[in-house]
Amino acid sequence: MGLPPPPPALRPRLVFHTQLAHGSPTGRIEGFTNVKELYGKIAEAFRLPTAEVMFCTLNTHKVDMDKLLGGQIGLEDFIFAHVKGQRKEVEVFKSEDALGLTITDNGAGYAFIKRIKEGSVIDHIHLISVGDMIEAINGQSLLGCRHYEVARLLKELPRGRTFTLKLTEPRKAFDMISQRSAGGRPGSGPQLGTGRGTLRLRSRGPATVEDLPSAFEEKAIEKVDDLLESYMGIRDTELAATMVELGKDKRNPDELAEALDERLGDFAFPDEFVFDVWGAIGDAKVGRY
Question: Which molecular function term from Gene Ontology is one that the record holds (predicted)?
Answer without folding.
Answer: identical protein binding
